[in-house]
Each structure stands twice: as structure tokens, then as C-alpha cells.
Automatic annotation (TrEMBL):
InterPro entries xref list: Integrase_cat-core, Retrovirus_Pol_polyprotein, RNaseH-like_sf, RNaseH_sf
Single GO BP term: DNA integration
Superkingdom of the organism of origin: Eukaryota
Stated name of the protein: Integrase catalytic domain-containing protein
Organism field: Acanthochromis polyacanthus (spiny chromis)
Signal peptide: none
Sequence ranges assigned to domain Integrase catalytic in this UniProt record: 33-191
MF GO annotations: nucleic acid binding
Length: 348
């Protein structure tokens, strides 16, 4: 009886789509590791900002993932035409065509015009998954830019475009934590008494350690999640309130589905399809996916928990878990206890 009640509760579709998850976000870090300048480039718009006397209301930002060099321009509108022109003038004409250009799924970047220009120049355009912009390094630059503009303009909010060159100079000559060097040193070898090749060799070594360190700390707050082709999942919804139809996002379901995994694109990106029609639902990062349980899968779920407990933690996670266990119980756990603790810690 108790088992049936548990299976009924676990497989309830209403509960699965309306109740929030209490687990850690899914998806361990998969860092992008460029090996040369302008191999990977990110692009994004900032704005709208107060329109200046010159008519500018947006900022378009390009960032090189290797050197951290930025190209920033104030523009009047955030359109595909502007993005394509700036890609040609600010990136291609100065640095050559990047191997990969990463952007979000904003309208200017998914247009046929922009795609045509980028592909014609020999660059592969890659889009971030919906509601997971962390892939695009430009997001971090945008925050820094807005903070710098805020410091410069004071109460003159329509004069922000006058300070773009000074802000860019400051960011290009400041040492970056990830590389240990300034972007100008990385790109031109001018800041320090060293050759450009030495700068690149140094940066590759430092970047490698930086990626490992960032992944270690990032993964402590994440859990591993993977799905097989055919698995049922639910996807996190992002509804918007609409006063005209008396619809409020606060009372809308938190998840939609069920969907069935149709393609695994990477360790963290999947393409699901609607379970009833087979219609493609797009590309999702695992942070926006959770298993969808039916009566049958709920009954199997209970029998596989012990099997999951046999997957041991590795690397820095072991040290972290040992420290946590020692702080709670005053001793170091054996391998079996550590494995069980790891399972419950990642599924709480």
C-alpha cells in the first residue's frame, strides 16, 4: 500500500509541472578552451539605454575568449543589419574571421541576414541554449561595462556613449584573472617586456589552471545529470504575465511536458520532442530539464537508487565531502559511506 501511494505521488503529472525542484541545478561546467586569439568570439547587445544626443541607445559588444580583448560600439538600434556591419568592421576587418561566434537566440542574431554574413566570412555561428546565457562570455563583460558606465555618467544618463573609448581602454589594459595578463598584452605583446609568443604560452598555461579552478568550484554547486534517447522529461517553463488575459506567471505551471529525448547534443544539451505529437521542442540545457515519471518509471525509480549509490565521487568532490563528513561526525568516512553520502548530498 505504501509503495503504491509513493508511486502515485511520484508519477503525478500535476505535481511534476507545478511544484518547484529542491535539488541543486543540473549540469556540470563544460568550459570552452580556446587555443589562440579570436578562435572563439562572443557577441551581445546591451540596452536599451537612454538615447543620447547622437541617437545611440544600444551597445554591441564582441569579446575574444582567449585574450579577453573587447570591441565595443554605441549604436542606434539593435538589429541584424547593425550586428552584421559591426561584425565586419570591428572584428573581421581588424582581427580576421573567428572560427566560432557565440551569441544568444535574440532576434538580431538568428536572422537570415546575420547568419549569411557570418557564414560567408567562414565563421561557424553557435547559439546558446534558451534561458542559459552563461555559455556566452559577453554576459560577464556586459555587467562590467554597465558598472563602469554607471561610475562615469553620474546623473548625466544621456551622455554614456562619450565614455565608451575610455572604458574600453581601461578594460583592455587591466590584468585579467583568467589569463594573468592584460588583453593588450595577450593580443599585441605591448604591456610587459616579453614576446607575443611568450604571452600566449603563459596564457595557455594560466587559462588551463583557471578553467580547472572555475570548474571545480562551479561543479560543487551543481549535480551531474544525463538522459538517454527516449527518456521522458519535463522542461522548466518561463511564462510571462499578461494583464489583458488575467494571466499571472506566479500561478502558472513551473514545468511543461512530458517530452521525450530525441537527440543528445553534448554532455549538457539535449533536444526533446513532444511525447504526444513528436514535435521538436528545441534545445535545452540540463539545468532546465527534470525527469518526468509515469507509474511504470516511478516503480523502477525505487529499485535503481542503490545502483546509483555505487557511483563514487572523484577528485575535488571527494575532498569536499570528506571535509563535510568530518565536520559533522568527527571522522573520515570509508569508501562505502562516502559514496552513500555523495548520493544523498547530490539528491537532496
Amino acid at each position: 500500500m505504501a509503495s503504491d501511494v509513493k508511486k502515485y505521488a511520484v508519477s503525478c503529472s500535476v505535481c511534476q509541472t507545478t511544484k518547484p525542484s529542491q535539488r541543486k541545478p543540473a549540469g556540470l561546467m563544460v568550459p570552452i578552451q580556446p587555443q589562440r586569439p579570436w578562435e572563439y568570439t562572443g557577441v551581445d547587445y546591451v540596452g536599451p539605454l537612454p538615447r543620447t544626443p547622437s541617437g545611440n541607445a544600444y551597445i554591441i559588444v564582441f569579446v575574444d575568449y582567449f585574450s579577453k580583448w573587447i570591441e565595443v560600439s554605441a549604436v542606434r538600434e539593435a538589429t541584424a543589419q547593425v550586428a552584421a556591419n559591426k561584425f565586419i568592421s570591428d572584428v573581421f576587418a581588424r582581427h580576421g574571421a573567428p572560427s566560432f561566434l557565440i551569441s544568444d537566440r535574440g532576434t538580431p542574431f538568428v536572422s537570415e541576414l546575420f547568419e549569411h554574413v557570418v557564414s560567408t566570412l567562414g565563421t561557424e555561428h553557435r547559439l546558446t541554449t534558451a534561458y542559459h546565457p552563461q555559455t556566452n562570455a559577453t554576459e560577464r563583460v556586459n555587467r562590467t561595462l554597465k558598472a563602469a558606465i554607471r561610475a562615469y555618467v553620474g546623473d548625466k544618463h544621456t551622455a554614456w556613449d562619450k565614455y565608451i573609448p575610455q572604458i574600453c581602454f581601461a578594460l583592455r589594459t587591466a590584468h585579467h584573472e583568467s589569463t594573468g595578463l592584460s588583453p593588450s598584452m595577450m593580443l599585441y605583446g605591448r604591456d610587459l617586456r616579453a614576446s607575443l609568443q611568450e604571452a600566449h604560452d603563459h596564457a595557455r598555461a594560466v587559462l588551463n589552471e583557471s578553467h580547472k579552478r572555475q570548474k571545480r568550484y562551479y561543479d560543487l554547486r551543481r549535480r551531474h545529470a544525463s538522459y538517454n534517447i527516449g527518456d521522458l522529461v519535463r522542461a522548466k517553463s518561463h511564462p510571462r504575465s499578461d494583464a489583458l488575459t488575467n494571466f499571472t506567471a506566479k500561478l502558472a505551471p513551473l514545468y511543461t511536458g512530458p517530452y521525450r529525448i530525441s537527440q543528445k547534443l553534448s554532455d549538457v544539451n539535449y533536444r526533446p520532442a513532444r511525447n504526444d505529437t513528436g514535435t521538436d521542442a528545441g534545445v535545452f540545457h540540463v539545468v532546465n530539464l527534470l525527469p518526468f515519471h509515469t507509474w511504470d518509471t516511478a516503480s523502477r525509480r525505487g529499485r535503481t537508487r542503490h545502483k546509483d549509490c555505487t557511483t563514487p565521487p572523484e577528485g575535488a568532490v571527494v575532498i569536499f565531502l570528506q571535509s563535510e563528513w568530518h565536520s559533522r561526525y568527527g571522522r573520515i568516512p570509508d569508501a562505502e559511506l562516502l559514496c552513500l553520502f555523495f548520493y544523498h548530498w547530490t539528491h537532496k
